[in-house]
Amino acid sequence: MHPQSQFLARSVTISTLSLLLLLAGCVSKPPITDKPVVPPVPDVGGPAAPAEPVPPLQAATFAQIPGWDQDDLRQAWPAFMTSCTVLVRKEEWREPCTVARDVDAKDAKAVRTFFEAFFTPHQVFNPDGASNGLVTGYYEPLLNGSRKRTGQYQTPLYGVPDDMLTIDLAGLYPALKGMRLRGRLEGKRILPYYSRAELTQNQALAGRELLWVDNDIDAFFLQVQGSGRVQLAGSGEVVRLAYADQNGQPYKSIGRYLVDQGELTLDQASAQSIKSWYAANPARRQELLNANPSFVFFKEEKIANPEEGPKGAMGLPLTPLRSIAVDPRFIPLGAPVFLDTTQPNSDTPLRQLMMAQDTGGAIKNPVRADFFWGFGAQAGEQAGKMKQRGALWVLLPKT
Question: Bridge partners of 119?
């Protein structure tokens, strides 16, 4: 993720292609973050689920949004203007994004008046009618690395392998627009591309090493986050490794794997707890990593502005504390979304306007969000602990 952050292609495994052609809607995308495991809601009776799915977006008013009048919307303005660089090309967004150029970004009243004049809030609902869903967090980590394998730098980070095929399905099946198939040739057959376990055992990635880092679990979580920064030994230069592609295998949470194995409880399944278990169980480390068959490949980027986050699914830099990852089947990418949740491991309200600028493999369902905390250790601490309930209101242009 969601960062993030960076995921333009939707990956599906070849083994599920026939099902995809029937359903034309099941999508697996590269992950942004290893999501905390959430316990199932017990069946305690009550009314039966509606026979028909509830519409995901239902018109509301700004007065119905908890905390709307208390948020400093100026903090979200830079992220909104970033969204508008893409949204202005769409008919329904052209007017608000054009007018926004003349709004005084330092005037709190002017910013609030703009949003209330040009947008209608729509509360987001899950198909069963629930207005609350899971809100997690992700961030951009910093790793220590080298351009050569030496000393403590023994864990490689890879670019896209030469033998991986990427097949765009839209040419044959328009309903699958945006979905791509990853595979490899064996004779005249196309097979699924190698899983993580297979990639650790064969030489398919030999020669595709971009950098070497000093910590294998940090390298794994870099793949989970989707992008990050690496400080190079010797020069001290910091470069960004951005998401380039993924092996097409489904993303599976290693936190869920540890819970299923009885190694952690549901309440313990955080990034910090996973790393602690990993350090204490050296004989089972590869077993744990292989529980997630998904494997992410990177590309190196220069960091022009250290204050900017990595690029999200729109190809635009994410804004710390004001960008979220969403399920784009229900919430348009780029749209303002008001988030009503709580701080990580807390009951303290976290209510503010965000921009839906990213997606992620674990971000499924309408009321589902991944909060981008930014760069570095403190952001990682917050992201790793975030496993809150929350509600969403998406702001759509008035017609």
Answer: 397
